[in-house]
Amino acid sequence: MTKKNVLDIDAYTLIDNSWMEDSLCLDENVSERLKEIFSKYNGWNKSKSSSFVYNHENTGAVKQYHEIKYDSFSDENIRLLGLFRYWNMINYFYPLKNYMDESWDKALYESIPLFKQSHTKEDYHKAIYQLTNRLCDSHTSLPATVDNVIFGKYRPLFRMININDTLIINEIRDKNSNNNQFRIGDVILEIDGQKASYLYDSLQEYVCGSTKWSNVRFLCNAVLSRRDSLTNFTILRNGDTLHVVSLNKTAWELNQDKQKRIKQGIKRQLYKWVNDSVAYINLESATFSNFSRNYRPIKHAKTIIFDLRCYPDVLLFEKIADYFIPENSTFAITTYADTDYPGLLRYSRSSNYVGNKKYFKGQIIVLVNEQTESFSEYLTMLFQANPNTITVGRSTSGSDGDVSILSFPGGIKTIYSGIGIYYPDMVQTQRRGVKIDYIVEPTIPSVINEVDLIMEKAIQLANKKL
């Protein structure tokens, strides 16, 4: 694909350097010096010995080098230096900058006083996440929600979801330890004496998702993040108000439990038959080594439902491309920062042509939701290169693509999406999520009754095909 077949190159320019000509704010010497610095570190004038950032073509990991690391943030000037470093990295190398809701210049102006006044560790962390939160990038909220300074390292043994301003439990994470204390369908009213709705609203300064449902996911997780191993909940169950004490686990422990479950699932049968013609396979425990043996028994099904409401093994890409994608398919376009030319994005095919002449000719239905994130979204796009694919669910994470890492003084690591991911028609996926043919959103009755509306819709569509 040549450049003229995509968008005009102006769509890939991140900066406007006309401010360097501003005679009201800059005298002539400063203006000329700024232009000289910018020119010196551009293109062929840029030598490695004088460079501060680099990446490899078509990869998003923009890295800094020759930058001094600061273990302490106590000095106001060092805090401001960290702010300016981050602002410049986003300004010149963030592939989604042009999709921001507000001016990145405004973000700098409003952040300066916050960083100047951040004398405590908590205030400093809050200032950082108030800044990174402006990107509305699901990737940026991942470090924030495990930051023990602001949110605490403990979590109850359940997850919740916000449906029409009702915070309701929709998943028990550790059924063995829960002892039926909390139940799916319980409504969370208060947490340690604070209204849950107030906590939900107040934490929007520090975490957010790229899409509606990823935003709900991050905020609910932040609300449930506690500093103590015990939490007092006030809940509503079947019309009764109850007070329940939660014995929490750390986020790390809960993640280890999840990884253990996934590993145990690798050796088990991953597929099941919905009926004689429709098969279902959950890709959570699917790997490069076990996928073929789970696919062979169902390869003659008229419809296969793939559950991608999870994060599968990245090596699965090759198997999916070989079994399900038509030969010579292109399914994604990538934009990435050209670190030789600050402020310029370039584009390329996200991968070489993929597919197989003997690809699966039946119907494919892919299930997605906010847990379909990053590589899961990329894999969904790959499935969608098959013309017989239908996608069912609600908005995905909107965080497709690799990440870049940047540390602030004091060792606070932040991440952001390092590359832009688009469909071949240049429809963006970041901040939107993947394309969905049938949008299915949860209801309070469906949560209480543990009805998987997305799966129900998929089965309905599959049966229509018979």
Describe the structure.
The protein has 466 residues and is α+β, with helices and mostly antiparallel strands. The chain folds into two domains: 1-59 and 261-400 and 421-466, Alpha-Beta Complex (2-enoyl-CoA Hydratase, Chain A, domain 1); 154-252, Pdz3 Domain, CATH 2.30.42. Helix content is 31%, strand content 21%. The strands form seven sheets. Strands 11-12-13-16-17-21 form a six-stranded mixed beta sheet, with helices on both faces. A four-stranded antiparallel beta sheet has the order 7-6-8-9. The protein has a three-stranded antiparallel beta sheet with strand order 15-14-20, with no helix packed on it. The chain is globular and about 80 Å long. The two termini are 38 Å apart. Mean pLDDT is 89; it is low at 1-11. InterPro entries: ClpP/crotonase-like_dom_sf (IPR029045), PDZ_sf (IPR036034), Tail-specific_protease (IPR005151). GO terms for molecular function: serine-type peptidase activity.
Q: Can you give keywords for this protein?
A:
466 residues; alpha+beta; 2-enoyl-CoA Hydratase, Chain A, domain 1; Pdz3 Domain; six-stranded mixed beta sheet; four-stranded antiparallel beta sheet; 14 helices; ClpP/crotonase-like_dom_sf; Tail-specific_protease
